[in-house]
Amino acid sequence: MMEDFNSETDSDYTSYWRDWFISSRGNEYFCEIDEEYLTDRFNLTGLNTEVPYYQYALDLVTDVFDLDADDDLREQIEKSARHLYGLVHARYIVTTRGLAKMVEKWKKNDFGKCPRVMCDGNPLLPTGQHDLPNMSTVRLYCSRCEDIYNPKSSRHASIDGAYFGSSFTSMLFQVYPALLPEKSTRRYEPRIYGFRVHASAALARWQDRYREETRARLRDAGVEVKYVEDDEDEELEDEEDEEEPGIDTAQARVEGDAASSRMDLGR
């Protein structure tokens, strides 16, 4: 990212860092943090222990960076500045001003639309599954089906979820309840030639699959278990075996009677 500023002076670099960061590809999910919020030390409590080169990174984010450093050090400071901005961003977007900015981005579909067909393109919101960094990447929350999805772009998929936090989406709809859409009650119904598949058929398939999986697990554990169905199958096989000799005996009697009749006619 430092290559973007090779043609710029140090003054340009330090004066427009936040504008550059927001307009960079892959950072479309972020909103611009107010300078008053960034300069209030109370809002940055505890971040000095989580961000390397904290003071230099803060100076860079607040456009007061003035250090003659080599390229390696500048790269480390730039990395810390992006991390610091992300952590502050998670705190900012749950404030009144931050929520208003994110709502505007949400209305413009800056975060994309829900891929679920039954949600009719409901706008998504970025959210994190954890509040601590380096635990999970950002996800996209749909307020209609109340599920989360992975971003389509690999640039967005690499953003840390802690930069948005796990409370942002719930906070937004608590403050703006009128924006909460009606829940999706429609579900896809499997059909065969236009007829809906009966629920008992799906239940029977699930039971058969679950039974086979259970048998396989028990077999792998060295446990042999018989089901009621197995006993019924064995009983049916025994009955069939018993019926076959009876049929043979009846046939033998018929053949014996026919032979006796022929002997009587011969006499």
Written account of the structure:
- The protein is mostly helical.
- The chain folds into four domains: 2-92, Orthogonal Bundle (protein kinase ck2 holoenzyme, chain C, domain 1); 107-179, N-terminal domain of TfIIb, CATH 2.20.25.20; 191-220; 234-267.
- Helices cover 50% and strands 6% of the residues.
- It has ten helices and five strands; from the N terminus they run ααααααβββααββαα.
- It has a three-stranded antiparallel sheet with strand order 1-2-3, with no helix packed on it. Strands 4-5 form a two-stranded antiparallel sheet.
- Strand 4 and strand 5 (195-196) form a beta hairpin.
- Helix 4 packs across helix 5.
> Structural class given helices, strands, pairing?
mainly alpha
- Gross morphology is elongated
- Largest sheet entry: 3 strands, antiparallel
Helical content, roughly?
40-55%
pLDDT averaged over residues: 82
Count structural domains. 4
Strand order of the largest sheet: 1-2-3
Strand residue percentage:
5-15%
What is the radius of gyration? 36 Å
Give me the CATH fold name of the largest domain: protein kinase ck2 holoenzyme, chain C, domain 1
CATH superfamily of the largest domain: protein kinase ck2 holoenzyme, chain C, domain 1
Write the H/E string, N to C: HHHHHHEEEHHEEHH
In the predicted model, the low-confidence regions spanning at least 5 consecutive residues are: 1-15
* Total E-strand runs: 5
CATH architecture of the largest domain: Orthogonal Bundle
The CATH class label of the largest domain is Mainly Alpha
Spatial gap, N to C terminus: 117 Å
Number of alpha- plus pi-helical segments: 10
